[in-house]
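Lab notebook, bench 4. The sequencing result for the construct came back, and we need a structural model before the next group meeting so we can plan mutations. Quick request posted to the team channel:

Model the 3D structure of this chain.
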Amino acid sequence: MCSTSCSGKGSAKMILRVTFALSLLLVGINHYMTFTQFSGMVSADLGPLGPLGMVWAYVMPALMIVGGLLLLVGRFGCLATLASGIALGSIPVGMLLKTVIGSAELATMMPMAINAFVWLLVFFFVAKSVRCGCSICMKACQKGGCCDKGGCCTGGGCACGKENGNCEKPKA
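Done. Here's the predicted structure in token form:
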């Protein structure tokens, strides 16, 4: 917590994470509040994949809510970024898929896909500030990662280069 309160960069990361998390959470809640409209929009123009779109209309807001909540409280970073990333990443893919297999026009879908890519860009910066701390990330860090090249494992992965300070190589 000290890095958040002692540096402008740390404070900016925390503010970005919290506002993004709240926004993602509120959008997920809104999708359930307006579910009839939302599910119709998701499954429209998907042709034979319309039923799959209907199922995704139930899953995607749940991923947004779970990811948003976990990002908000700063816990389970791997799960938070995975849930948020899947939900947000599916939006431009789904929009553009509708232009290929459905009757949607690219000129209609492209602005919405670009909007989703803006969300993904912000997500990228939020995800960079999230500490993962899960055992899968740490094992990947210790095996063949930068730890073999003199870096050290942190809660969010390897710290390499000058910023890693006087880290010692983890003992196997």
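DSSP finds seven helices and two strands in the chain.
Will bring this to the meeting.
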